[in-house]
Amino acid sequence: MHAADLHLDTPFSGVQASAPFVAAALRDASLHAFEAIVELALEREVDFVLFAGDIYDGSERGVRAQFEFLDGLKRLNTAGIRSFIVHGNHDPLDTGWSAISNSWPELVTIFPALGALEEQAKIVRVVRDGVQIATVQGVSFAERATTTNLTTAYHRPEGAGVHIGLLHCNVEGSPSEHSNYSPCSIADLIKTGLDYLALGHVHDRRILSGGTASNEPWIVYPGDTQARSINEAGAKGVYVVNVSDGIFSEPEFVACDEIRFFRHEVKIDECESVIDLLDRLQVLEQETLQLAMPRSIIMRVTLTGRGDLHPLLARPDARDEILGSLRSRSSPSSPFCWWEQLIDRTQSEIDLEEIRARGDFAADVLRLADEYRKDDAMQAAMLDHLLDAAPRNLRKELSPLLVEPKFADQLLSAAQLRALDEILGD
Questions:
Q1: Which residues neighbour 224 within 8 Å (Cβ) at sequence distance 6 or greater?
Q2: How far apart are CA 410 and CA 363, in angstroms?
Q3: Counting C-beta atoms within 10 Å of the first and last residue's C-beta, which end of the chain has fewer, N or C?
Q4: Does residue 204 contact residue 5 with C-beta atoms inside 8 Å?
Q5: How far apart are CA 336 and CA 289, in angstroms?
Q6: What is the rounded average pLDDT for all residues in the chain?
Q7: Strands 218-221 and 206-209, how do they pair?
């Protein structure tokens, strides 16, 4: 099993005053996610669990979180399941493990940092029934701001079984919100010669390399095990990896999160009143709770589209009242829904016929759009120009759309509304 970025005891802010029960649930969520990881490992009878850094969120490292982590490792140890751990930028070795000291179970390996005389990662053999089935090697961060490319310390050892590297790092091309600690490239990771690179640091799960029909090694980020903010929407958990005769199956994602974050977009076009909008949002709440069951959810909704509600929604006090009405339905019973924010991206209704009759520049824009609709040659030239102007990586995706009969009309409708918004203002 491959896990990373547990961030146990992550402090959440912003809801304490308005909803103490939500704040309390968020404080416990990362610990409950870890409990789910332990239960899953026991249920699947895995050979070992890999923890790819950032077990804790920071140097504070609550005593409760440390003991919960130690207790979980003891349960795995009792079941004969090994645990391999590296430290990342949030829990580097120089800040210590004050509450636990060195009382780790026998089957727990915490990989050290590279020392002045140590240039290679520590390698541990995994033996089952007298046969070596794997090796695991890893390097911990000695300090938070580790900017050295640590992949140079990894190499393929001699011996049977699959060879695994455990590493907290930032692979080139990762989302910019992740600090560039232990920077490396996919080529650097492939150069290690290992079969599976178990990574941590990036909170989105992603498989960067590998495949059942590929000769490339598996390079995998499992993401964090419990989302820490609305910007980490979607399921969070671990990968379970099966190996048979040295062949890896596709890593299986298993959700372990306690609370799930969602971001939705709701159009106001068909809402005639605030009551209509509230009804639509409450239906969305029930649908999202059902989707996430049995988890609690935290939701942010962006309101879009055009309609008579736009002037009202443009007022922050009106949005606050709608948000308050939605939140008033939340209760401490689980699973709950907490509405984190309503964002207004709506626009005014535009009367196209009234604009056509004005005879001004805005009317000329509509006239030009109408001419494009009636002239196949003009449409073809427009679509060719669109394809030429598009970024190269999007052209392959755009090409099939260009032959769709409705695409040109949809494009013109969107373009004319965008142009009118720019001309007329809001």
A1: 4, 5, 6, 7, 54, 203, 232, 236
A2: 19
A3: C
A4: no
A5: 8
A6: 88
A7: antiparallel
